[in-house]
Amino acid sequence: MLRVRFLVGLCSTLALAVLANPLQAACCYFSAKNADILQPAQKVFLTYDPAEKVETFTVQPKFEGNALDFGMVIPTPTRPKLHEMPKEFFKHLAYYTILKKREFPHSKLLYSNLRFQRAALANDRNREQQAGEYKARKERKTVVVLEAGVVGSLDYKIISAERADDLFQWLKDNKYTYSGDEATLDHYVKKNWLFTVMKIDTAAMKKNKDGSYAGEVTPTRFQFASDKMVYPLKITQISVKDKTEALFYVQAPHKVDLPGDWTYQYTWIPMLQAATGCTPGGIQGGGEQWVKNLGGQVPVLLNRARELGFNFIAGQRPNPNAKGHIPTTMEWARKLTAGDIQILKGEAPFSEKVPNVDEGFTEADMKDTKKAEAIRMVIQARLDKARKERPFGYAVREVPAEELKGLTQLAGHMQEDLFITKFRKIFARDEMNDDIVFERARQGEQEDTSEYQEILPTSPP
């Protein structure tokens, strides 16, 4: 059975006080009365097994605020199993999905640097969430604590509720003020979803000079049965002032996309088109073939993007349209191979290495007229050899050497033959009226299997 994880912000705010941060996560938040908790970032990793109908997501919220304790509440379709994850899991996941860039060897001693294309590495501007705390209510039997325990350093409870008004009252009875409405709770109660509440104690967190706290909690994995690969977006709406940003890392047997007009194709297709013909060696990963396979569907897609007011500008992040809506962007995509797993285990190099054509020689050697000409010939021969063997350069990505060992934390979670799709979507508040059901990446009868591992001339920063 495939294990399941999910990198996508999954909490929606149930805040006791109205939260001021416009970029909240998809979670329910609680905090003490007259205390604020802000969520500047969220990280979630999702895997789905369609055969076993099992979903797993790992979530790690970052928080800032003045509440002494708070919690996060995560709704799921069925009762989840909870497991502690490595604290730096998401940091190393971000490292592994850094886009590669093409570099060529050059000689400092010959004073002739070869031209090569550099591009900025894509940034993971992740948005996380916070959450809220509540206590079991004895009077109302429609709100039931199904399970209570500890995962890592976090206390948690899994609850069910038959009525939204009872759940609303339960929160009030337990001295918490719910900033949303009963209708939002009712959305999940009617679907018979459950709620997991995790208590967060700030005592062990960093305390700022102004008395507020900041920190990250240990990542927690939730695994549960689900007929579909879902993301509870609607509950996020109550904690968002204008918009929220979510970075999705989705692992499945196939490439994944968001539904309808949230598709990443509105930015992916024009980015591929603009890069075609100006990328030495062609676009790697099948991008050009994907555009060819779409054929007559390309003008239809681009026309729809124009109708929505999505205007692609090469090398730039997309701007909002007249309604404040921003198209989804694909950040990284790959079907994992045995080679990827070897890299994670430290059994294969993380990046290609650009040859040092000056190796063995120094500037002092070049000042020796008897040696200089012979050295130049050797260096030039090395450059010629590298150009012949790798006419389009070496695909490199840079990570601090001390962090490479940490990639082993991903082994066992990232699986051979599964596709990881990483994409970013900034949701405006009026786009959060329902939950997300992820779709197979396809247009009509054509399935998108294109990969994205190397920076293109048209890639945004």
Task: Give an overview of the whole structure.
With 461 residues, the chain is of the alpha+beta class. The protein folds into 2 domains: 300 residues, no CATH class; 30 residues, no CATH class. The protein has 9 helices and 23 strands. Strands 1, 3, 4, 6, 11, 12, 13, 15, 17 and 19 form a 10-stranded mixed sheet that branches. Strands 2-5-10-9-8 form a 5-stranded antiparallel sheet.
Characteristics:
461 residues, alpha+beta, 2 domains, 5-stranded antiparallel sheet
Short synopsis of the structure:
By secondary structure, the protein is α+β, with helices and mostly antiparallel strands.
Note the main sheet: 10 strands, mixed
Q: Give the total of domains.
A: 2
User: Could you name the ranges where pLDDT drops below 50 across 5 or more consecutive residues?
Assistant: 1-41, 112-140
Extended strand count: 23
Q: Which term fits the overall shape?
A: globular
Task: Classify the helix fraction into a percent range.
Answer: 10-25%
Structural class: alpha+beta
What is the typical, i.e. mean, pLDDT?
A: 80
Assess the beta-strand content as a share of residues.
25-35%
Distance N terminus to C terminus?
37 Å
User: Given the structure, what is the number of helices?
Assistant: 9
Ordered list of secondary-structure elements with their pairings:
Elements: E1 6-7, E2 28-31, E3 37-49, E4 54-65, E5 69-76, E6 81-84, H1 89-96, E7 101-103, E8 143-151, E9 154-161, H2 164-173, H3 182-189, E10 194-201, E11 206-207, E12 213-216, E13 220-225, E14 230-231, E15 243-252, E16 256-257, H4 265-275, H5 287-294, H6 297-307, E17 329-335, H7 338-344, H8 363-367, H9 369-389, E18 394-396, E19 419-428, E20 436-437, E21 439-440, E22 442-443, E23 446-447
Parallel strand pairs: 3-15
Antiparallel strand pairs: 1-3, 2-5, 3-4, 4-12, 4-13, 5-10, 6-13, 7-18, 8-9, 9-10, 11-12, 14-20, 15-19, 16-21, 17-19, 22-23
Helix pairs in contact: 2-3, 4-6
